[in-house]
Design goal:
The complex is a heterodimer of chains A (251) and B (245). Chain A is α/β, with parallel strands linked by helices and 251 residues long. Chain A has 10 helices and 10 strands. In chain A, a hairpin with a 2-residue loop joins strand 1 and strand 2. The relative contact order of chain B is 0.18. Bound molecules: adenosine-5'-triphosphate and magnesium ion (MG). The site of adenosine-5'-triphosphate has 11 residues of chain A, from helix 1.
């Protein structure tokens, strides 16, 4: 379980995040939604330790990440997998080498075992037989899949996805979303997704937090997100026609 | 002020290179890849510039010494000494700064702006250690070798062109070279080689590592890497000459 307590963060004198507290449960897809520039990516970078918060604590199973020393932090990091917005695959390595990388670095297993695990993960994300391709030869959706395979290859307890379906067509988005949900449930991972795509939220979101200008404005599940009377959240959720019609029909 | 900011940050980055590798084999493999990327792939350009350096210096020295009073062997002495002391280490390093420096800075810079460095960090890999130390080590191993090669080829180029154009015979050249040879000069030259190799690789890595923005900034970082490497090479060239000669 991950718990954020009173997280604040400024860059210079610009306040980005203010007093955010959140809980994330294992086996659940937790979504953080909000407009562009609201601070979602910064929040995620704080959680995975790429930035440190100015105040507040980030607890992984009760351990405050912020107060850990370097070695303890790197132990926590080994339990984290992350899918980046633009996939962040290593350009100079093939698909197989990309997924193999964390294993070769950290797993004591033999090379043959590691390759077996790589093939299993690639197969799991639907990318068997692409082992020898380079990232430049892949489509955006395939890159995301490789990113997911690389993120789960070490059996992480926590999976972070920053806008997993940005830049993808609606169909591919759904496929990637479903993949993330299945993996979350199959391996009982605590998954956290940044998104501004309401389709994804309605599709796979178990717990949803809405960030507005660096503050947590609302928190709940998808049953309540359509019926809430929170003004700011309503503006965000019903910015698309489709959902507005959906709501009006069900009233 | 800017200078102190960058210098401090540069030292802090270097400090991070000394953390224990997560997995020695991965670092070892990377070292060999970098030795190929930095050393082997620079062979061609080093061969070409070195031969021409020696040849041109021979022709020009002969032109300047056009007097019957000076023995022809002096040309051999001048060309071989300048190859060892300056042409081999400094000119070669300046050229390598352009080739290796820009490629190191743009490789690391691209990894920075496309979040590949963040990805490494999240895996629990010490990104500066894994990305930068094999490059510095590879540079410090292979660049001095390239410079020894460059000196040899520069002198050979001089001998060849001198003989070919009838400026002086190969025997005269070698006789002159031997008469002025000092083993200390080789030591001095290698000291320069190691220093320049370290400057090129570490300064370029620094520029790449602290790139922020997009592909435009990657280009700027790689330009800065070359410019600062060259300036620092020339500056330390002067300082080493003051200190050691
Ligand atoms: N390293 C940084 N230094 C300074 N400011 C930053 C930094 N990273 C982000 N910001 C600022 O923080 C604010 C929030 O950015 P963030 O990337 O978290 O938004 P976001 O919610 O992820 O938006 P999007 O949906 O477009 O990805 C922005 O105003 C951005 O300029
Ligand atoms: Mg973002």
């Amino acid at each position: 379980m991950i718990a954020l307590k009173n997280i604040s963060k400024s860059f210079g004198d610009k306040k980005i995040l203010e007093n955010i507290s959140l809980h994330f449960q294992p086996g659940k897809v937790n979504m953080i939604i909000g407009a562009s520039g609201s601070g979602k990516s910064v929040l995620m970078k704080l959680m995975v330790g790429l930035h440190l918060p100015d105040t507040g604590s980030i607890e992984y199973d009760g351990q405050d990440y912020v107060s850990l020393d370097r070695n303890e932090r790197s132990e926590v990091r080994k339990q984290i997998g992350m899918l980046f917005q633009n996939s962040a695959l290593f350009d100079s390595l093939t698909v197989e080498q990309n997924v193999l990388f964390p294993l070769s670095m950290f797993s004591p297993g033999s090379h043959a075992d590691n390759i077996k695990r790589v093939n299993f993960c690639l197969d799991r994300v639907g990318l068997a037989n692409t082992n020898k391709l380079y990232p430049a030869e892949l489509s955006g959706g395939m890159k995301k899949r490789v990113g997911i395979a690389r993120a789960i290859v070490l059996n992480p307890k926590y999976l972070f996805c920053d806008e997993p379906n940005s830049g993808l067509d609606p169909l591919t988005s759904i496929v990637i979303d479903e993949l993330i949900r299945e993996i979350t449930q199959e391996y009982n991972i605590t998954t956290i997704i940044n998104s501004h795509d309401m389709n994804s939220v309605m599709e796979i979101g178990d717990q949803i937090a809405y960030i507005y200008k660096g503050r947590k404005e609302w928190e709940g599940d998808k049953a309540t997100i359509l019926t809430t009377d929170n003004q700011l959240l309503n503006e965000f959720v019903f910015a698309t026609n489709f959902l507005r019609q959906f709501r009006d029909k069900s009233r | 002020m800017r200078f102190f900011f960058h210098f401090g940050r540069y030292l802090l980055l270097l400090k991070q290179l000394f953390k224990r590798p997560e997995n020695y084999r991965m670092y070892w493999d990377e070292l060999f890849r970098q030795m190929v990327a930095i050393g082997v792939s620079s062979l061609g350009i080093v061969i070409i510039i070195s031969v021409f350096m020696g040849a041109v210096t021979t022709v020009q020295t002969a032109y300047q010494l056009i007097s019957g009073l000076v023995a022809k062997t002096v040309i051999g002495a001048i060309v071989s000494d300048s190859s060892i002391l300056e042409l081999g280490p400094t000119i070669t390093s300046l050229v390598l700064a352009g080739k290796i420096g820009s490629s190191i800075a743009s490789e690391i810079g691209t990894m920075r702006v496309t979040e590949q460095i963040d990805a490494l960090e999240i895996m629990g890999v010490n990104a500066p250690g894994y990305l930068i130390s094999p490059k510095i080590l590879a540079a410090v191993i292979t660049i001095p070798m390239l410079i020894v090669l460059s000196i040899t080829l520069s002198i050979s180029g001089g001998i060849f062109v001198g003989d070919l154009t009838g400026i002086l015979s190969a025997q005269q050249f070698i006789e002159g070279a031997r008469s002025s040879f000092l083993p200390y000069n080789i030591f001095f030259s290698l000291t320069k080689a190691f220093t320049f190799a370290f400057i090129i690789s570490s300064v370029s890595a620094y520029q790449g590592y602290y790139t922020s923005g997009g592909s435009l900034e990657v280009g700027q970082s790689s330009t800065k890497a070359v410019v600062y490497s060259c300036i620092l090479i020339l500056l330390s060239d002067y300082l080493l000459a003051q200190l050691m000669l």
